[in-house]
Amino acid sequence: MEFYIQEWLNLLVRWLHITTGIAWIGASFYFNWLEGRLETASPNKKKEGIKGELWAVHGGGFYEINKYHLAPKTLPKTLHWFKWEAYITWLSGMGLLSIIYYWGAESYLLAPESSLSPLQAVTISIVSLLAGWLIYDLLCRSPLFDQEVAFSLILFALITFAAWAYSQIFSGRASYIHVGALMGTMMVGNVFRVIIPSQRKLVTAAENGDESFDPDIARHALLRSRHNNYLTLPLLFIMISGHYAMTYGNEWNWLILATLAAASVLVRHFFNRRNQGAVLPWLWPSAAVMMLTLAFVIKPQAVAQVPVAEQPAFDEGKVVEVVNARCATCHSNEPSDVLFQSPPGGLVFLDYPSIVKKADQIYAQSVQTQIMPLANRSGMTVEERQFLGQWYQQLEKEGK
């Protein structure tokens, strides 16, 4: 029953997380696009204090958008804020982190060889997220903040270091999720601690007719918002990374994540600069080369060839015996592992033909990346992994 409750919580909180995340990222993309697309206001509108304007058509109607230098003379009765999308996305994300990785720390958070207790691992997780925000916030309040290129490189280096450090402590999948949680904490911290407070000061100044509002406050908030914008694509990859064991299951998973993040930042920069009227055509090819190079570098390595005389007899019984003992504890119609009431992903190993049908998947996850069995709960040995690798090699030769 505990697992059933956990699954329902996972479903509902994940659904909420995705929904609010779409709303938050969509608003971020839209306002960054809008900022870059505003045209110089007409002379009459300049007299009203309007800095830029934009016309759009959508859903069968025309829209006129104006941006003021400071604020209109009279504020409208209804003023829309964009904050709850960010808050609920972060809260639901932390909920998922708790439900999956804290509640199931022994299976999902800790690496199989880890000597940490679940409590120690959870404590490291929470403290690291808080420390990450504090370090980032201190950097933003330092003179380095005005040096955009230097600041960006240092921030990227710190996030890469965090990815490496997490990979030394947690499982590959959990280390990726923690990098995402770290980015998400920075982003929501920007909204809660900087962007919304600056907007409140702006509204207060407008209500009081105070024209001495410090523009540096708005500029600082705008730069923080830009940081959020650049972090969105790496964060979106991390949200789906659990489906791609070839990345987080690799020995160099932290470096793979850094490369993917760098490529996605180049893509985001292309769109941001295009919205500002500058097209930098070299960004797309650069990102593509990085991705293709990465795909080549981490491609699956062939199993070491075994001389024919030394090859074991791959009788069906031996293969079924290993899979039943190490994989079918989860992947059967009635899993014996207490974590599952139904086979993960609907994958069931009933007999030898069903095992052969999924040979590629077995090889990739139990031999190449070794992320399965989950946390090696069933105790698959090195010899068994080698045996399955050689079996897969034989299948490849036979063209099965």
From TrEMBL:
The protein's matches in InterPro entries, at most eight in alphabetical order, are given as: Urate_ox_N
**Annotated transmembrane regions:** 12-33, 86-104, 116-136, 148-169, 175-196, 229-246, 252-271, 278-298
Urate oxidase N-terminal domain location, by residue? 4-298
Which superkingdom?
Answer: Bacteria
UniProt keywords, alphabetically: Membrane, Transmembrane, Transmembrane helix
Can the keyword Cytoplasm be found in this entry's annotation? no
Name the record gives this protein: Urate hydroxylase PuuD
